[in-house]
Amino acid sequence: ESLETLLVERRGRVGLITLNRPKALNALNATLATELTGVLAEFDADEAIGCSVITGSEKAFAAGADVKEMAGKAYPQALLEDFIAVWDGFARLRKPVIAAVSGFALGGGCELAMLCDLIIASDSAKFGQPEIRLGVVPGIGGTQRLVRAIGKAKAMEMVLTGRMMEAAEAEQAGLVARVVPAADLLAEALKTAETIAAMPLPAVIAAKDCVDRAYELTLAEGVRYERRAFYALFASEDQKEGMAAFIEKRPPVFKHR
Ligand code: HXC
After folding, report:
1. pTM, full prediction
2. For residue 177, how far is its CA from the centre of ligand 1 (angstroms)?
3. Crossing angle for the helix pair 142-150 and 152-161, nearest 10 degrees?
4. Is the interface score ipTM higher than 0.95?
5. Ligand 1 centre and the CA of 105: distance in Å?
């Protein structure tokens, strides 16, 4: 397929998407948003894919929403087009998506990383929500997801001052799963994605779904939600196979993966 803003390839059971607007530091324009959510939905529906990876360039994962595209919008136009709604597509994805972040992840770029299920960062990664300097606030969930990821103190400081957070601080604060040397970023992200893609898919879908519920539910409701998912997996062939393989001391051969 020929896309204007992305490079897309399949690496075995992993779908790899590279943001490709190098002249604009991968600024997220409307075309990119449509293409990205479209490709992710295709991968999500594809039995041959178990996990996706989104990456950018060494210099920039994404430097934010495209300011040049946004700057002239009037309020009724912004409201009526609802140009942010395209990103709601992430909420419908059932298979995991990994963000492999090098360089700038600013504004919508930081929010895109947080829309992914986990972030692996290179030691050069820089996260920030600089929207305040443009006279706006984060608009793709940044004020909400950043607070949940790193807590109110650091989130409030970042959103009010626009200061960037380096990779080490982001890891310490819990924004990223892991920091790796820049040269290893893609390989490490792909390795993690391959590991996930080799797991039994019914359990992967349930696991992501349950962890996501922790953002939304009370502890008691979340624990009940998890328990229903746990029992339901005993209806899957892969649970029978996974446990039989363990007892028989052999590698499992999963049906759904
Ligand atoms: C459009 C952008 C861009 C952006 C960079 N560029 N970021 N274009 N939208 N968000 C363009 C520049 O205009 C320039 O193009 C080219 O990319 C290279 O950028 P430079 O600024 O020359 O690079 P550098 O000096 O290395 O600085 C890198 C940078 C800086 C620190 C990342 O580009 C920067 O501050 N970018 C904006 C970051 C930002 O404010 N993001 C939040 C956007 S608002 P030309 O053609 O001029 O050479 C947002 C809201 C999301 O994200 C929610 C609503 C959807």
Report:
1. 0.98
2. 26
3. 140
4. yes
5. 11
